[in-house]
Specification:
Number of helices: 2
Number of strands: 2
Helix content: 40-55%
Largest sheet: 2 strands, antiparallel
Strand order of the largest sheet: 1-2
Amino acid sequence: MVGAMVGLVVTGGNDPLANQIGSITSYLAAIPVAILVISSSLNESYGKYRVSLSEVEEQTEDITNKETTVS
């Protein structure tokens, strides 16, 4: 909203250009907020569950050639 108001003042009332400036500033403002939300939710406990990032070990055997039987 602040970006759109600044856009209106800077452009002299040009609505389409002010809307573009407002859209760009809202996208730029949303990036740090999204980073903050994601980083604060990682490694938090949610009852018996937890969201986390962890390193995955590489598998040495080829799992695509294993046959599975369905009963």
